[in-house]
Amino acid sequence: MGNNGKTVAVIGAGIFGANAALELSAAGFSVTLFDKASDIMQAASGINQYRMHRGYHYPRSSDTIRSCMEATPLFEETFKEAIMSHQPHYYAIAKEGSKVSGDEYLSILREHNLPYTIETPAHIAPSMVDVIVRVEETLYDPAALRRIVAARLQAAGVTLMLNTEVHADELDAFDYVVVATYAYFNSAIKDREALHRDYQYEVCEKPVVEMPESLRGISTVIMDGPFMCFDPLGDSGYAVMGHVEHAIHKRSFGAHPEVPEALVLLLNKGIVENPSVTNFASFIEAGAKFIPALTDARHVGSMYTIRTVLPKVDATDERPTIIESLDHRVFTIYSGKVGNSVQAARDVVAMITASLA
What is the structure's pLDDT at 190? Predict the structure, then answer.
């Protein structure tokens, strides 16, 4: 048992829950980390674009820019062995359909002291974009991050309970409970319906591709609207693609996500080869308008997961990390960007520690 004699159950072994468990253990709590999956970081933590955001992606939300700028460096330092810093990163503002113009985008970057250089890389069609900037962002290698986190949880003495759906009566044995289950928040506290919240859920596809030589090792984002992006996938030699519209197979609002029957067995399974349901052709058709070489990308497979967004944030596209105390014993983490997870964990520790005073 920890030095302070208090026990904590953390529900959800994604990167936010895992970091909460590590920081709580370091603070002297005895921590048990629960997850219904067979391993840590199997859902959204391990299925996304793996970008360490510094704020460039969110020109319509100053709060998200500041949050990323403040928290991401801490994550990069904490998990520096998993950070990939050698890839060129480009952000391009589309000439048509963007919610900010090129001039507006550059003004926002200057306002927040986000460094950039204006470039015209060969892989982006210049006639389709207003401005292209190269920035100093990093990526994380999801496989490396999972190995590091697993080793640290073991070394910290955190009790890891996988393949486990914990119930309310079992949680009564703990002094504190931290819920960090992202898309499955309401399911994790299903016995406490009064505490349920409504979210916007998006069942997402992330195609994994073998890029042509001209696009390998490059991160590119076309902004700011219904456009696409792609980033290297760790040291696999592949890239993972995103698209604001085509990535989403089902959008729903309410207490629980609605998952199409055809996608249930594809969720959170890693790379699914020859998936029965895929929007890959639409990704390529839309993306090739900006990056012609995408027509030579080979579909390796796709990853599927559920993204959770606060309702009614389309105007700003904000991605906050929200930590709350529900009843002075149960604390919740609404996960924003991965780079905020270490700071969020420390904030949880501070809140629980303050309750002991």
Answer: 64
